[in-house]
Amino acid sequence: MENVGKNVFVTKYSELPVNLGKTVLVGEKSIALFKLSTGKVYAIENRCPHREGVLAEGMISGEYVFCPMHNWKIGIVDGVVQAPDEGCVSTFPVKIQNDDIFIVIDDLDNPSIKNPDRCVYNESFNK
């Protein structure tokens, strides 16, 4: 996958806790950032599609986050809500350079970023 879009610095890799979410703001967009036990970092929209629970506050299990409001299981890699629940959240490519973490944003004004109507897998440019 070609790295297109704007690289927006969000935090230091060394400062990101393992298996805990961190909320970062890109413009007015709230994004949940996760560093998994594998060391890979992923970024997803920071709201559950059910009742807009803050996903950065959810419990991590493998490559999933559980919404803290009603326990919906959401894939951190692809943004897909697991059955029997339905829905998805936007995912954002992540780029790591040295100790800096960037989220790759194509267009903050794009309606699909603010109100996703489908899930799109975005490869992360991890270590």
CATH topology description: Rieske Iron-sulfur Protein
The end-to-end span amounts to: 15 Å
Structural class: mainly beta
**CATH class membership:** Mainly Beta
Helix percentage: under 10%
Report on this model:
- By secondary structure, the protein is mainly beta.
- It has one domain: Rieske Iron-sulfur Protein (3-layer Sandwich), CATH 2.102.10.10.
- The chain contains one helix and ten strands; from the N terminus they run ββββββββββα.
- The strands form three sheets. It has a four-stranded antiparallel β-sheet with strand order 2-3-4-8, with no helix packed on it. Strands 1-10-9 form a three-stranded antiparallel β-sheet, with no helix packed on it. Strands 5-6-7 form a three-stranded antiparallel β-sheet, with no helix packed on it.
- Strand 5 and strand 6 (64-66) form a beta hairpin.
- The longest helix has 4 residues, at 111-114.
- The protein is globular.
- It starts with 5 loop residues before the first strand and ends in a 13-residue tail after the last helix.
- The model is unreliable at 110-127 (pLDDT under 50).
- InterPro entries: Rieske-like_NirD, Rieske_2Fe-2S, Rieske_2Fe-2S_sf.
Task: Lay out the secondary structure.
Blueprint: E1 6-12, E2 21-26, E3 29-35, E4 41-45, E5 59-61, E6 64-66, E7 73-75, E8 91-92, E9 94-97, E10 100-105, H1 111-114
Antiparallel strand pairs: 1-10, 2-3, 3-4, 4-8, 5-6, 6-7, 9-10
